Amino acid sequence: MALRGEALWLPDRYGDLWTAETPVDLAALDAGTWDLRLTLRFRDGTSREATAHALAGPGLLRRRAIPELHYGVVLVRPYRTHAGALALRTAPGWRGMTTVVRRRLGRLVH
Fold first, then answer.
1. Among 12, 14, 55, 16, which residue's Cα sits nearest to residue 36?
2. What are the pLDDT digits (tens) for 67-93?
3. Is residue 8 part of a domain?
């Protein structure tokens, strides 16, 4: 599945790194694990595939329950892979939320 969006790249205060932010339509994702991949398109018409990297820091990779019109709620857990890439686990709707809670309670009981 591919979600498309555009983002403006901005240099950091030293001019060494460039960063961009773009929203992800979580309601378009089914339940599961998703790797975030990027296609960088340059002014000269060339492009390059890249992996989104997760930034470390307090609150940046925390779990969230996001209200959504179609599903009611989408549970999202961003995480950093072993290679440092950014990935998401999603559980849309009440069924997804129930599955997550049931598994978590099962781990607590055993």
1. 55
2. 888 888 888 899 999 999 999 999 888
3. no
- The confidence score (pLDDT) of residue 102 equals 83
CB 29 within 8 A of CB 96: no
Distance CA 85, CA 54 (A): 6
Q: For the whole model, what pTM was predicted?
A: 0.70
CB 7 within 8 A of CB 20: yes
Distance CA 63, CA 65 (A): 7
Structural domain span for residue 97: 31-109
Query: How would you classify residue 5: left for phi > 0, otherwise alpha for psi between -120 and 50, otherwise beta?
Result: beta
| Overall size of the chain counted in residues | 110
85 lies in a domain? yes
- Evaluate whether residue 18 is within a structural domain: no
The C-alpha torsion from 84 through 45 and 15 to 18, rounded to 10°, is -30
Domain count, the chain: 1
Would you say residue 92 lies in a domain? Answer: yes
